[in-house]
Each structure stands twice: as structure tokens, then as C-alpha cells.
Specification:
Length: 462
Amino acid sequence: MNSNYLDEWIWGHIKREATSDISLRHILRINQEQFNRVVLERFQIFKLRQMVAYVIKKSPFYRDLFSKHCVLPSLVRTPADLRRIPFTEPEDIIKDPYRFLCVPMGEISRIVSLATSGTTGEKKRIFFTEGDLRRIVDLLSANTKAVLGEKKAVVQIMLPGETIMGQADVLARGVEKAGATPVVTGITSDIMKQVRAIAEHGSTALVGYSFYLHRLTKLASERCKLREMGIETIVITGEPVPEAVRNALEDAWKAKVFCHYGLTEMGFNAGMGCHSGKGYHIHESDYLVEVINPQTGQPVVDGEEGELVITSLKREGMPLIRYRTRDLARIIVKKCACGSILKRIDMITKRTCTGIKLGTSEIYPFTFDESLFSIPMVLDYQLEVKKEQDKTTLIFLVEIVNRRQATRSAVKEIAKVIKQDSLIKGDALGSRTFVEVKFVSKMRVRDTSCFKRLSVFVDPPS
């Protein structure tokens, strides 16, 4: 892997754009030999001013919103001026997505209906032009080169969306543009079918969701010597990656794991991990990121957890400005070991609307991942929270690799590990919190890229 490929790619992109734009070239005052934060942030502010002017002219939603809040392109001069711009809420898109459009419907090439993480069943509609789709392919191609370098890799894509410009298809186009060979196998419950495809196509890299890849690895390793199959690289997207799962994948396949962060609203792509294994580097020529206090809307100090807010700097069809993602994240302050100057956000494991308050703390769908997936026999799990008047019971529904392991001693072993979690051991969830472990025959295979509720919270009526 070229540790600084994304930096070089972004720098080349900025220089090419400055070559054709005299005003940008003047603002950047580019030193042709150096890429640094000062130049990058000047570029971002320039693009933000352009985007504000663009949406005022083209988007009915932003024209009305910015008029109400007296937002003008001339007022955006520094990163601090971003606070002058009001937020865009997910509910705004649900209410009327067509008001966000900056082009006629005839110029829209792809529409994605995106289910929300709530329980109402409401959906967001996201629009992309042909130019937007080309840019997405470019970004995914850059990710591929950053991870694989110049290797003539065969990339097996285990994702849904094999239709034209669906999730798997758009990644396949990016992989192909990077000079590698894509093989789309989708998601199937037939684990050995995936393994046979690896052997048949000579795949050297895998792309998929973390828990699907974890399931594949655990079950296939019972029947195959995965280390001998030639997989060198694994890219995980769509879900957080517990350290225990990362370690298990790297050990089983003798491969390096990289993590990708994307959300549909931003074109399936926003950041890419590097060989350090810590967080995601943001594609800062295309996206401007902030972390805010979700209650006050004010920025938090770098390193502090808050809600991730993203602004698209390049979109044509449906740009989103200061979009509240509902993802809870933090900027990693320490410079990355890979040497990149790009902003890095930590692994996202929480959403603002998915926590449940217990004691002095909250638990989220992925809270106990590290504890559970550190146990070799665990294949998957769900969590039910049973709240009664005087106590709370955490019921862990656990699927294990081999049903013969479903013994009483195994139940005790799993419960013991869970009880060592700092939230339970330290009584942060309340002194009247109890743990139960139950074995189940099989969990539903996860088949979407949405931030799914790994845990099911049950709060029975009193």
C-alpha cells in the first residue's frame, strides 16, 4: 500500500483544478512541491463559497433556508464562518427531497431510496447526476489504489446492489478503473459458494460487511485452510469493525484489514482507513467535516465525541450543506503513522437515536461487540434489554459456530466474559443489572449497508 496515495491523489486534483481557475490559483498561492493543511483548507473554503452560491441559485430548499438566515457566499471566508450556515437535518430530506435538487429531473441518472434508522418506515430519496456517479467511481478508484497499490489484484465484492450503479456495481467500476479485476458475488447464506468463488477467480482481496465476513470466516475455517487461499487484503464497509473481529480476520486469512466509511447521502463514500488500522482519512477535497455537540449544535474540541456533520463540496444533483449524519464520532488528534495530513475520524460505533439509558450510562447496538466477539465460539449475537420495576436484565441471544458447543459451561463462560465489561463491572448500568445468555440456532444474515441495530432493545409495558 502507498501510505500517502490519497494525499497525492487529492493534491493532484487540487492542482489540476487550480490550473483551469485563475481565482483559485491566486487564493491557494500554490507551492508546487508541497501539500499542507493551509492549502487544503483554503481550497475547501473556496469550494464552500462556490457551493453556497450554487445552491442559492439552483436549490429551492437552500434558497429559502439561506435567505431566512441571511447566508451569502461572501460571508464564508474562514473555517469558523461555517457556523453562520444552518444545519441540514435528515428530516428535511424525508419531508421533500425534490426541493434539494439543483438540476432538472431529466439530468438525474440514479435515485436511491434510503431507509432511516428509526422505526417509522420513512425513507430518504437521494439523487445523483451522471457527473456525480463519475466522481463516486473516481473516489472509489482512489481508495482501491490506496489500499492495493499497483498490484494486479482480483477483488471479490460481497455487497448488495449488483444493478447498474448499485453499491456493488459502482465499487466494481472503481476497482476496474484502478486497474484491478472486480468479481461481484453479492451476499449469500451459502458460505462455501463464496469460498469456491475465491478459488475459481483467484481472488486476492475481499470487500464486505464486518459481521458477514466474520460469519464467513468462522464457518469456512471449519472446512478450509483460509490462510492458503491467497487473500492479502480485506476491506470492510457499512458497519463498525470491532478490534476482536479485525484480529480474527487478519489471523484467519493472513491478510491486512482496511476500513471504509461511507453514507448514501454523501455518495457511498467519505473516508478510507490506512495501514495504521486507526480510523478513516476523510476525502477532504470532496467533503468538509465537523464534529458538534448534538444537543447545542456547537463544535466540540478535536478529540471529543460528538455528532458528525458533513458538507459536500462537489455534488451537482443534490448537494448537502452541513448535513447532520446522526453518527457519533471524534476527530483523531494525533498525527497518523502513515504520514497523511488528511483529517481522520475514529471508528463510528454509535448513532444519536439508537442508545438506551441505563444507570449513569447508555448502551448502543455495538456496545458489547468487543466482549462477545473476543470469544472464539461466538458467531453472532443480539441483545434484549428487559426493564422491570426494580431491575434490568440484559439477555444475550448468542449464535455459536458449532452447536455441539452449546453447553451449560459455555453459557457460564460467555456470561463471565460479559460481566467483565467495564460498564457492568463498574455498575455504570446500575447495581440491579443482571446478565442472561441464551443460545439461538441462527441469526438473520445481515444484507444491507445501513447502520443496523445489532441489538434488539425490549422494554415491556409495566
